[in-house]
Amino acid sequence: MTLRLCHWTILLATIAPAFQLYADEPFVPGTGVRVEQVGDDFEDPHWQYVMNGKKASHEQDENQRPPGGKATNGRWHESALRGQPDVVKRVNTPPGGAEGSKGAMLMATRLSGVPGTIAGTQMQDDLIMGVSSRIGRAVPVAWSPSCTVQVYLPEFDKWENRTGASFGIRADVRGRDRQGSVEPYWPGFFLLFRSETSKQFDKDFAQIAVRAQQNGRDLPGPKIYEPGWWTFGMSFTPDGQVHFYASEGVDDLTEDDHLYSGLPYGSKAMFFDNFFFDVANWENGKSWSTPWVVDNAEFYVIPPEGRTLANLVQPGRRSVAHHSKPNAFERFFGLR
Predict the structure, then answer these.
(1) What distance in Å separates the CA atoms of residue 51 and residue 78, rounded to the nearest whole number?
(2) Could you tell me where the beta strands, DSSP code E, fall in the chain?
(3) CB neighbours of 172 closer than 8 A, spacing ≥ 6?
(4) Which domains are present in the chain?
(5) Can you give the pTM of this predicted structure?
(6) pLDDT tens digits for the chain (336 residues)?
(7) Could you count the other beta carbons within 10 Å of the beta carbon of residue 13?
(8) Cis-peptide, bond into residue 67, ω within 30° of zero
């Protein structure tokens, strides 16, 4: 698998923008200091997610339906833009997970659009891991933030049998675009299913896509032919680049797992607000999404010289509810 990822690193590097010749060097996600107020290992047997009524669908009909769902530990909450997956719960860690892990989080969805209607097309729900709300501020990229998560890919006969996007692993950031405006954007990974029922594929497999290149287009990445655990991570350097890493298994990411570095959509990252997941399906009222399980979602920073974590995390932010501060989604769309 290392050889496969190295091959993709070399291939993707050939289409990275020329600015990398003098830009900040990539660093492995998970480097630095882990921010304990953020993330989750799902080991608490009492872990619970409360839906709090019908999901939001502001992207489709400008309806938020507050108060919004959230985990009782305050670390996860519903997206006010699209709404939460229909199922969010703690489950036993699937085989092959991190050593000692007994719990993980499962997400699945069926009615992923506007409540009470059927879209008849691909829709998606989002679940947000609060960062800015947990520490009381957005994280400047001068702090070299990074996020990592372990994701379980089930056997292919358990996937929604549809060629297309199935799961997203993304960051909620703000950056300066080509026009000079500071706007939110959402780099990350998508896990795509390639179904043998499609004419162009003779067997089931999955594929990683990186979102996105400087021109905004997704970048095709490694193909995955076996189920099991993968580790994903993104790191952000002070020059505004985003660096993408992925590796089969649950070991810590390394330099060999680097897939791509660039300025997604041509924007230079300035602030990291949140980490989140997309769960997609074809909303016909019947089809369930692929059941997605994640574990050990973590957030790290590398404090600038002369600074410590105490300079970043506001006092008393150990158990802050997400309603205390709007995230980039909400600021951009005027949701709060």
Answers:
(1) 8
(2) 33-34, 49-50, 70-71, 76-78, 87-92, 103-108, 122-130, 139-140, 146-153, 164-176, 182-185, 188-194, 205-211, 219-224, 228-236, 242-248, 258-262, 268-282, 292-301
(3) 128, 184, 186, 272, 273, 274, 275, 276, 327, 328, 329
(4) 2-333 (2.60.120)
(5) 0.89
(6) 433 454 454 445 444 444 444 579 999 999 999 999 999 999 999 999 999 999 999 999 999 999 999 999 999 999 999 999 999 999 999 999 999 999 999 999 999 999 999 999 999 999 999 999 999 999 999 999 999 999 999 999 999 999 999 999 999 999 999 999 999 999 999 999 999 999 999 999 999 999 999 999 999 999 999 999 999 999 999 999 999 999 999 999 999 999 999 999 999 999 999 999 999 999 999 999 999 999 999 999 999 999 999 999 988 665 333 333 444 444 444 444
(7) 14
(8) yes
Q: What span, in angstroms and rounded, lies between the C-alpha atoms of 140 and 114?
A: 34
